[in-house]
Amino acid sequence: MRDLPKCPECGSEYTYEQGNMYICPECAHEWTKQAIPEPIDNKPVVSDAFGNILQDGDTITVIKDLKVKGSSSVIKVGTKVKNIRLVEGDHNIDCKIDGIGAMKLKSEFVKKT
Ligand SMILES: [Zn+2]
């Protein structure tokens, strides 16, 4: 079974693949293979410490005591955080924690509830 596309220039069926290119031997036209379409929603996939996929609006529990940078506060293990928002970066969860305020957490230290 041939699944190679016809040459878009001359319509030849004798195209062949080379690396990520298609080549037409008849008119010497070369073109790149069609790129795999990117998902429109290209938000990063974020999973918790146990591999559960997290989504905006989820409630998570902190599974490790976490120091709050620049303060003496500690987010205790077991702290529930509601309505998280996923963001890009090292700290990929944007959230607000009661008594502490707006925070960014790492998904590896949380568990989906
Ligand atoms: Zn051609």
Give a short summary of the structure.
The protein has 113 residues and is mainly β. The protein has no helices and 13 strands. It folds into 2 domains: 1-36, Single Sheet (N-terminal domain of TfIIb); 59-112, SH3 Domains (SH3 type barrels), CATH 2.30.30.40.
Topology summary:
Layout: E1 16-18, E2 21-23, E3 30-32, E4 46-47, E5 53-54, E6 60-62, E7 66-67, E8 74-75, E9 80-81, E10 85-86, E11 93-97, E12 101-105, E13 110-112
This protein binds zinc ion.
Structural description of this entry:
A hairpin with a 3-residue loop joins strand 11 and strand 12. The protein is mostly beta strands and about 110 residues long. It has 2 domains: about 35 residues, N-terminal domain of TfIIb (Single Sheet), CATH 2.20.25.10; about 55 residues, SH3 Domains (SH3 type barrels, Roll). The protein contains no helices and 13 strands. It has a 3-stranded antiparallel beta sheet with strand order 1-2-3, with no helix packed on it. The protein has a 3-stranded antiparallel beta sheet with strand order 9-6-13, with no helix packed on it. The protein has a 3-stranded antiparallel beta sheet with strand order 10-11-12, with no helix packed on it. It starts with 15 loop residues before the first strand and ends with a strand. The structure holds zinc ion. Zinc ion (ZN) binds next to loops. Zinc ion binds next to loops.
